[in-house]
Design brief:
The complex is a heterodimer of chains A (190) and B (130). Helix content of chain A is 73%, strand content 0%. Chain A is an all-alpha fold. Chain A folds into two domains: 111 residues, Rna Polymerase Sigma Factor, Chain: A (Orthogonal Bundle), CATH 1.10.1740.10; 59 residues, Arc Repressor Mutant, subunit A (Orthogonal Bundle), CATH 1.10.10.10. The model of chain B has no long low-confidence stretch (mean pLDDT 84). Chain B is mostly helical and 130 residues long. Chain B has eight helices and no strands. The chains are: A mainly alpha (190), B mainly alpha (130).
Chain lengths: 190, 130
């Protein structure tokens, strides 16, 4: 396992539209926050949505970041930022495939939207992790996002393994309940 | 285990660890449903792993470099003296602006006449991504 910095739970609750506006004013921290919030999603769209290799996904990711910067002024704020960003990454991935001529685009089209739709659900779950607060957010992030074993998480955080196991159980339950809550409210409203 | 059911903690730990179902789960619809729900959350958590840290660093550094380049280009457009300096000593101008003097940037500054707002955009991808 390569050493990694502790995963940073995206505790920032600034809206996407506000982050974009701050980026356009040149605020570096806003761009950092946008990258922290969406990098995993962007990378996953390339690597899972299009089944690209890690090297290819990195190319697509970098191209998508350049396009993101170039396109920010064109994002009106009217639609969901995530959908707009998804289109940016998908376009970068298609361009990559065209360039590499690895496989003709028609073969890519049918399965890809479903796989990317699944990632959007995953992004909602990932975003909900930060709302758990500490120590859940860091523990869950290290274990599931940075892919550390429970023993490695324990070592990183300086707590016994049993504590990490207990936290993961407790935090997963809270996460599941939090995710079910809005759906339950929607159902009860009919 | 209460009334033979798995406790919420046991269900969560089972989902997180990916372990095999205990025998009770096969015969208990409640536990099976709870476990399936917990596993869906775990699957979603595992679906978006962190990208390599260096990619995040590169993406963040890109913004700073791009802003610096755009700022330099604005100054070059407004300042003939700086433009003259850039055409003869491009490396110094780039370093003073906090930019790595890549071959593309050096060549663009040496050209002098071609400095425009569009330059940052044209050079950005290959020159500024770490």
């Amino acid at each position: 396992m390569s050493p990694r910095r502790a995963a940073r739970p995206a505790a920032d609750e600034t809206s996407d539209a506000d982050l974009v506006a701050a980026c356009l004013r040149g605020e570096e921290r806003a761009w950092d926050a946008l990258i922290d919030r969406y990098a995993a999603y962007m990378y996953a769209v390339a690597i899972r949505g299009f089944r690209l290799s890690q090297d290819a996904a990195e190319d697509v990711f970098s191209d998508a970041c350049v396009r993101l910067y170039d396109g920010l002024r064109g994002y009106s704020g009217a639609g969901e930022f995530r959908s707009w960003l998804r289109a940016v990454v998908v376009s970068a991935a298609r361009e990559y495939l065209r360039r590499e001529a690895r496989r003709p685009p028609p073969e890519v089209e049918p399965a890809e939207p479903d796989r990317i739709d699944e990632l959007e659900t995953a992004l909602e779950v990932r975003s909900a992790v930060s709302a758990l607060g500490e120590p859940c957010a860091t523990t869950v992030s290290l274990h599931f996002f940075a892919d550390l074993t429970q023993a490695e998480v324990a070592s990183r955080l300086g707590v016994p393994s049993g504590t990490v196991a207990a936290r993961i159980s407790r935090c997963l339950r809270r996460l599941r309940d939090n995710l079910q809550e809005p759906a339950a409210r929607r159902t009860s409203r009919g | 285990m209460k009334n033979g059911h798995l406790s919420p903690d046991q269900l969560a730990q089972l989902a997180a660890s990916g372990g095999e179902d205990p025998a009770h789960v096969a015969t208990c619809a409640t536990c099976r449903q709870e476990l399936a729900s917990m596993r869906r959350v775990v699957a979603d958590l595992r679906a978006l792993p962190d990208p390599p840290e260096r990619l995040l660093d590169a993406a963040k550094a890109y913004f700073r470099a791009r802003r610096r380049l755009e700022d330099l280009i604005e100054r070059l457009m407004d300042d003939p003296a700086l433009r003259a300096k850039a055409s003869t000593r491009p490396e110094a101008v780039l370093r003073e602006a906090g930019l790595e003097p890549t071959p593309e940037l050096l060549e663009a500054l040496r050209g002098g006449e071609g400095v425009s707002r569009d330059l940052a955009r044209r050079l950005a991808a290959k020159s500024l991504w770490g």
